[in-house]
Amino acid sequence: MIHNEKTIEDVKRIFDLNLYEARLWLALLSRGISTAGELSEISAVPRSRAYDVLESLIEKKLISAKKEQRPVKYIALPPQDILAQVKVNYDKKMEEQSKIIDKLKTGEVAQKLKDFHISGSQLVEKHEKAGILRSRRGISHQMDTLFGSAKKTLDILATPEEAHHLSKFHLDRLGSASAKGVKIRVAGPFKESDPYFKELQKIAEVKIVKTISARIILRDGEEAVFSLFTNKDVHALYDTALWVHSPYFVKAMRELFNHIWTGK
User: Fold this and answer.
1) Residue 225 backbone phi and psi in degrees, to 5
2) N or C: which end of the chain has fewer CB within 10 A?
3) Mean pLDDT rounded to a whole number for the chain
4) Do residues 221 and 247 touch, judged by C-beta distance below 8 A?
5) Within 13 Å of residue 85, how many CA atoms lie on the same side as its CB?
6) CB within 8 A of 107, min separation 6: which ones?
7) How many Å apart are CA 249 and CA 199, to the nearest integer?
8) Domain architecture of the chain: domains with CATH
9) Strands 205-208 vs 216-219: parallel, antiparallel or unpaired
């Protein structure tokens, strides 16, 4: 494949494409004009699927085709024009969503939803306050939720790669938590020379601990996220973590964190 996985993931997210669409579009952008057969070879998309996927890209106005020619030639449209249209569509969608939300806040639907939540919460058993998080994006989203809801403490065990992820994608949220008075501690097998180290020190106590390598977040002694793999062990799409909301369990884990933090 001529493009790395990060580029493909970014294109999928920004342009709302599936994997085959992203691969074929990137392949066509690199060629300018090409046939389905050529694009199938360089994008690793099965030829039997290439035609349908290219038609989908035409419908999404990302490419055009000279169908009067044989074989059909597909042409990449200028990315800057597409990005401008994506922004227009996004702004329009957000404006529509905002109007809907404003109506929901004060309408009958909002009260019904509130009533449903109250009645549903009364049925939630303790054993139901746990779940499996799939994909690094899903885990990252739950991490962001934990950081935003923290009131007192955030205790984080991180690999160097996870610490880099924290500094790149969650520094603002962690900074907001710190500004609210949340005590943040981050421990892991870091090096002071690592670029993320000083960034995290701006909003948290950071300690180098060589005896353990893990990806664990504890919030307020009540809620936790435990990743089952290191960042290097598994592709981002297959990363998996456990989420639990159990003061009994998380407080015990916090005691273990304190032992790691103090070295005692």
Assistant:
1) -125, 125
2) C
3) 86
4) yes
5) 10
6) none
7) 31
8) 5-79 (1.10.10.10), 128-262 (3.30.870.10)
9) unpaired
